[in-house]
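Complex 439.
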Amino acid sequence: MPVIESTRPATRWITRLVPAILVAAISYATFVIVGRVCSQYLISQRGEAGAAITILILYFLFLLLMVITYLRNTLTVILDPGLVPLGPLAIERRKIERDRRKRGRNRRESDLESQPYHSGPDPNPDSPGLEEFYTKDVFTCENDGRPRWCSECCNWKPDRVHHSSEINRCVLRMDHYCPWVGGMVGENSFKFFVQFTTYTACYCGVVLGAAASSLRKVINDDAPLDPHFIPAIVLAAFFGLFTSLMTLTSIRYILLNMTNVDMLNSRSKVYQLAVRVPRGTEATDRFSVVTYPLPRPGEITTNGRLNGTAVPRTARSSSSDARARPTTRDDLANRTFAILKTEPGENLWDLGAWRNWQNIMGPHLLDWVLPFRKSPCVNHESHDSFYPMGRALADVLARYELTGLAMATAGGEGAGLEMKEIGRAGGGGAGGGNRLSRE
Ligand SMILES: [Zn+2]
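Predicted structure with zinc ion bound:
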């Protein structure tokens, strides 16, 4: 399994250095809390064994949880951060670049030589991965109704995917690059990341509380000051504040179903959606439509133009086009999508705070506190959309007066559309549902 690292040498070295810093900080905290605060001060000097045992239990409990969540998070981030597979062109391009670097050519020359590669959207209607989109009922798309395309990875970008220049890959539900946990935090690791920051904040709280209360007693008793108390307080306060803020921010994002990336321009962001509508739905002056599978290059559209660039057909042309073109494809497998836009700032992914929480943290208390199972949102098998969409989708459909027509995700009756389409096709068994014909 390849290790995913930053493309920037400085970040790579910082990321590798962090575990050593953490081990040093934890070793020092253990020395201070176990050796100086509990053993030497509370038990030996003051005879407060009960307080010392309480501190030790809390200290080792949060230390254990912190270490487990750290390991789970870091291993996920390094080995399985949730990347979109590279397109064949990007694999070939990266192999050539690697070979060139091995041959010792300088980077500038390599960059210049890589220019001729075509990196626009793949014009092939059977482009690898494209079917994953139009077998869903809703997906985010470009103006022409095709999914978003990453010119670096040469892949179609599922909803909420962003290209990270830090690791030069497209990341599912990308959040941020965190050198403290070894790399890119995305949908596979965000839950573990939040658990790690939460337990680290609790751990720092125990260290801070134990050291600060001991310091207060020393001052009250006018006893000699242990020189390790103050450095421990400063370290615990610094890391505690840092991780508490991270935890609070992350919990807010979970409750809103947002990521750090989503938060950028969140008030002005407009999503463009391809929403499945019954075959033959006409484009209107409010929205255009696209029908999949896209025509092959060379197919003639109704305006007599050679379609060499796989520009999606509009519904005005699609029905007659379908009759005209010599194709063995089953027209019942065609899927028509209306291209719609959200209002600025609408949060498509907001399912309500409780469902948002469960979507990331899991359905049960044990999922929330232990870092074993991944978030439910990593499951993309639903035929509705890559991620569940909330009320905002229903609002979009209502604005376009498509509530009765479009598919189920907004809370409508998905099966209703299947029935309508089967009805239109003459109720034939061959059309027994586009969903069924998927596999
Ligand atoms: Zn990419």
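The CA atoms of residues 257 and 356 lie 5 Å apart.
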